């Protein structure tokens, strides 16, 4: 029959491999572990855009026909039309969102129209993801992501379903 190990040879009931060698009681070790790991988990779960490189400012689309201002809307990124190459229709009136699927919104002007919303920063991909982009030319809304390529270049991609299939444009910073 084997001889039982002495108290010094037995592993402690609560073992932390990277804890200091000083024998701490369970509550002290638990607090020590919380102090060590809580900042890591709270930062990983925090959706706030603090410290995240955001493409704030005004950007022109690839054709140079529309200027969109990116801004924070809560903890997300949104964009609204702030400039149009042709701000008036053929009758001289301000261009309206005539293709909107909601008939009550068809009379709203395109200037000031929110066309990008719900974008959240995805650090693994290095882009603003899970957003939507509205195309006032056809009244459709697509999934989208936005990735800043350089200080003055922005990739905006709209897609249905999977990001592999869709249409991407490179926008240029105006201000």
CATH fold category name of the largest domain: Lipocalin
Q: What is the name of the CATH architecture of the largest domain?
A: Beta Barrel
- Gyration radius (Cα, Å) is 26 Å
Q: How is the biggest beta sheet arranged?
A: 8 strands, antiparallel, barrel
- What is the ordering of alpha helices and beta strands? HEEEEEEEE
Helix-residue proportion: 10-25%
Widest sheet, order of strands: 1-2-3-4-5-6-7-8
Fraction of residues in β-strands: 35-45%
pLDDT below 50 for ≥5 consecutive residues: which ranges? Answer: 11-19, 32-48
Tell me the quaternary state.
single chain
Mean pLDDT: 81
Briefly, what CATH class of the largest domain? Mainly Beta
């Amino acid at each position: 029959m084997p001889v039982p190990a002495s108290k010094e040879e037995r592993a402690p009931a609560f073992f932390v491999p990277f804890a200091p060698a000083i024998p701490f009681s369970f509550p002290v070790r638990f607090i020590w572990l919380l102090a060590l790991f809580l900042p890591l988990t709270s930062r990983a779960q925090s959706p706030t855009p603090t410290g995240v490189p955001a493409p704030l400012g005004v950007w022109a689309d690839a054709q140079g026909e529309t200027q969109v201002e990116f801004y924070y809307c809560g903890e997300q990124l949104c964009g609204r039309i702030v400039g149009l190459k042709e701000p008036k229709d053929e009758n001289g009136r301000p261009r309206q969102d005539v293709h909107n699927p909601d008939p009550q919104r068809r009379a709203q002007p395109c200037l000031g129209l929110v066309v990008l919303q719900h974008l959240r920063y995805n650090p693994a991909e290095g882009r603003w993801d899970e957003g939507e982009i509205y195309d006032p030319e056809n009244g459709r809304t697509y999934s989208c992501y936005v990735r800043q390529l350089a200080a003055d270049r922005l990739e905006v991609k709209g897609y249905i379903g999977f990001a592999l299939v869709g249409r991407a444009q490179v926008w240029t910073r105006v201000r």
